[in-house]
Amino acid sequence: MKRTMRHITVAQAIVECFKQEQIRYVFGVPGESYLPLLDAIYDEPSIEFISARHEGGASFMAEGYAKASQKCGVVLATRAVGGANLAIGVHTARQDSTPMVVFLGQVNSRFLGREGFQEVDMEAFFRPIAKWVVEIREAERVPELVQRAFRTAKTGRPGPVVVSLPEDVFSKTIAEAVIAETDVPKPAPRQEDIQNIEEILKRAKRPLVIAGGGVKWSGAEQLLRLWAEKYALPVMAAFRRHDVFPHNHPCYVGHLGLGSPKAVMETAEQADVVMALGTRLSEVTTQDYRLLSPNQTLIHIDIDSDGFGKVYAPDLAVWADCQEVLSRLLDIAVRPSWQEWAAERRKRYEQTARLPVEHRNLYEVVMASLARHLPKNAVITNDAGNFAGWLHAFFPFGDGHTYIGPTSGAMGYGMPAAIGAKLAFPARTVVSLSGDGGFMMTVQELETAARYDIPIISIVFNNHMYGTIRMHQELQFPGRVIGTDLGRVSFARLAEYLNGRGFQVQTEQQFTEALLLALEAKKPTVIEVLTDPDHISVAATIQDLRAKRKS
Q1: Running DSSP on this structure, what letter comes out for residue 77?
Q2: pLDDT tens-digit readout, 307-322
Q3: What one-character-per-residue DSSP string does 281-302 give?
Q4: From 77's CA, which of 259, 275, 348, 526 has a CA 20 to 30 Å away?
Q5: What's the CATH code of the domain at 363?
Q6: CATH of the domain at 293
Q7: Which parts of the sequence belong to the Thiamine pyrophosphate enzyme N-terminal TPP-binding domain (predicted)?
Q8: Distances (CA, A) of 545 to 388, 444, 474, 483
Q9: Do 316 and 423 fall within a single domain?
Q10: Element of type H or E holding 370
């Protein structure tokens, strides 16, 4: 469907593109360089501008919203200063394959190239981390290039696109603007590809599926489950793609992430056929690119052909949409002979995912309480940090979009991403998990959540340090602590000052009571968990690390 509009401003044309993309929320920090665009949004009741406290927080909100809603996230910022602040969100969207379009107000056209106030070459600045960057200086081309920006962000491997416009361009008039739907192609595999997969599986004795974000973006989770059930295929989740497959399913055998248990790694190592489905086989998923061996047969299936051979040379590369591939793989003539091996690997995974019954530390207490009390459709986001190891190891993710985490490892992500996810799913409980280091980086966005009545729950594990870096510091330079200790901050009190609600807890009973109150709260709530600094990771304490180093 196409719409033709005449004699509208550039700002109005951009808003019409937003409407065509069914954009409900636009995130940003206001700036004078794009005020006409804000004014055009003011006139459009179907779009709400969420004014954040920092562009980095706004970009994380947009990225989290995009992951949850499976629409493009949209961020607005001003010139070089706003663009630089939100660059972390662009990098996250690129590494996480998230569709996002950033609109930046550039300096006036008359000042370009003169090192004007807050000027930078936007195309050169963002080119290394964005999927595409364009600066539009001709008003007539705005509808064409903005629609191309959304199409580029959504097509193939999704990613961030940056659109820069000089501030004077926003007010110019376009004689005729054609606004059209931007369909996303879903390429199907060749019949030869399906036959080749069938032949490889007929010879397999220990096949394994590694499922990534491509499965989620194509909406193929249900097909993956049906395929795995029909052929008794063990399935692993790629790094921070936990909800790609339900953890209580007998075919699920673990998560390939930071600190993956030895038993999970052994499953990947024992496999004779590995089917990488919708994953780029990242550094973390492949355990520093050392996971797979030349003796294993690799089938790499992805919508992005650039990923083939970037890490491992595939024995079979299938360039196609995951949904299209899986719908055809449901009919292959393969009789599985690996059920006993798959069942054994499931048993070994279950042993790693079982919380201790007694003598739980506070992280384990929190995971048990969350599993018991959160609604089944609750959405969990997490920041970067070692605290996430307990979430990844022990929380039982189920069906549906229930997890949002940064494969980029960006600190400060968890709480703003939860704001975006809550806007996408207003009827669902949304919980963020953060450490004290990462939470402080975007804590000001709690005020944003309060101002817009977005009742998220933020769990902050406070051990008064940059825990992940401290762990590496202790491994390499035991006892020589520099830079990783942090000051004493009461995040519960800080939440109150930012118009939210706060609880500080140190026991299982206190946490569960705070969680139940937070689930009923109508405002953003922080549960500050005071943890033992010695509990540095799931696998070790600081004392363990120092003792190991000495020995």
Answers
A1: E
A2: 999 999 999 999 999 9
A3: --TTTTTTTTS--TTSEEEEEE
A4: 526
A5: 3.40.50.970
A6: 3.40.50.1220
A7: 9-122
A8: 19, 35, 7, 18
A9: no
A10: helix 362-373
Enter the tokens of residue 289. 């690119």
Two tokens, residue 477:
């330079």
What is the CA angle 353-384-351, rounded to 5?
A: 5
Average per-residue pLDDT for the chain: 95
Range of the domain at 359: 355-548
* Per-position DSSP letters for 232-260, written without gaps between them: T--EEEPTT-GGGS-TTSTTEEEE-STT-
180 inside domain: no
Q: Are residue 203 and residue 252 in the same domain, yes or no?
A: yes
pTM to 2 decimals?
0.95
Write the burial class of residue 70 (CB in 10 Å: 0-12 exposed, 13-18 middle, 19+ buried): middle
Burial of 110-142, coded b for 16+ CB within 10 Å and e otherwise, reads eeeeeebebbbebeebbeebbbbbbbbeebeeb
Angle ∠(154,156,159) on CA atoms, nearest 5? 50
> Does residue 183 lie in a domain region?
no
Q: 260, 200, 250: which is closest to 229 by C-alpha?
A: 250
For strands 173-180 and 2-9, give the pairing: antiparallel
In angstroms and rounded to an integer, the radius of gyration of the C-alpha atoms of the chain is: 24
CA distance 219 to 333: 25
pLDDT at 548 over 80: no
- Ranking 185-189, 503-507, 545-549 by mean pLDDT, the lowest is 545-549
Q: Select from 324, 352, 380 the last residue of a domain.
A: 352
Q: Which of 202, 233, 206, 205 is CA-nearest to residue 326?
A: 233
pLDDT of residue 358: 78
Q: Are residues 163 and 226 in the same domain?
A: no
Pair (46, 99) in one structural domain: yes
The 10s digit of each residue's pLDDT in 64-106 is: 999 999 999 999 999 999 999 999 999 999 999 999 999 999 9
Residue 543 domain flag: yes
Residues 241, 219 share a domain: yes
Q: Residue 551 pLDDT more than 90?
A: no
Number of domains composing the chain: 3
Query: Residue 104's pLDDT is what?
Result: 97
Q: What Cα–Cα distance (Å) separates residue 363 from each residue in 243, 414, 488, 513, 539? A: 21, 17, 20, 16, 12
Q: Are residues 279 and 298 in the same domain?
A: yes
What mean pLDDT is predicted for residues 31-36? 95
Q: Mark which of 300, 327, 352 sits at the end of a domain.
A: 352
Task: Please indicate, yes or no, whether residues 260 and 323 belong to a single structural domain of this protein.
Answer: yes
Q: Which two tokens stand for residue 347?
A: 């048993």
Among 97-101, 162-166, 354-358, name the one with the lowest average pLDDT: 354-358
3-class SS letters over 189-233: CCHHHHHHHHHHHHHCCCEEEEECHHHHHCCCHHHHHHHHHHHCC
Tokens at 200, concatenated:
């490889």
pLDDT in the model for residue 550:
67
Residues 483 and 385 in one domain: yes
